[in-house]
Amino acid sequence: MTSPARSSGRPAPAPEAGLGPGGAVLMAWLVPGAAHLALGQSRRGAVILVVLLFMFAAGLGFGGRLFPFQLAEPLVFLAALAEWAVALPRLLAAAAGLGEGRVVAVTYEFGNTFLIGAGLLNMLVMLDAVDRVTGRKA
């Protein structure tokens, strides 16, 4: 089966020089959109950065919780894993004492959803960055 790039008559783009798949994942994990910015896709990288940071900040503003890694509670563990997919914002929020989670707040679950959603979306951004570095996507 041929790839869409080849079936359209266009050759697959060459992988970006200087940034490998591991570097792209690391950059995108630390700062959402950073890998796309490094690949010269400034508009896409800026949109990713602004949207995911807004989602993360909204989650904190709604009283969401920064979940700890607890293997005894599988859903808490998965929530923590998702939140850590936006590493630097997660680390800075924890260092600032944010994300304690106001369970009595009406918006608590919305906050959790925004925090977890930002991480899950950044996982997709990491995959997209790898596809762009390896030449699977233009």
Order of helices and strands, N to C? HHHHHHH
Low-pLDDT segments: 10-14
What is the residue-averaged pLDDT? 91
Number of domains: 1
By DSSP (H or I, 4+ residues per run), the number of helices equals: 7
Question: Tell me, what's the shape?
Answer: elongated
* Estimated radius of gyration: 17 Å
What share of the residues lie within helices? Answer: 55-70%
Largest sheet: number of strands, sense, barrel closure: none
What is the terminal-to-terminal distance?
19 Å
Structural account:
There is one protein chain. The chain is mainly alpha-helical and 138 residues long. The chain has one domain (19-131). Helix content is 62%, strand content 0%. The protein has helices at residues 4-7, 21-30, 34-38, 42-61, 74-83, 87-95, 108-134. α2 (21-30) packs antiparallel against α7, α4 (42-61) packs antiparallel against α7 (108-134) and α5 (74-83) crosses α7 (108-134). The chain is elongated, with a radius of gyration of 17 Å. The model is unreliable at 10-14 (pLDDT under 50).
Quick overview:
This protein is mainly α and 138 residues long. Helix content is 62%, strand content 0%. It starts with a helix and ends with a helix.
What are its keywords?
7 helices; 138 residues; mainly alpha; elongated
Topology:
Blueprint: H1 4-7, H2 21-30, H3 34-38, H4 42-61, H5 74-83, H6 87-95, H7 108-134
Helix pairs in contact: 2-7, 4-7, 5-7
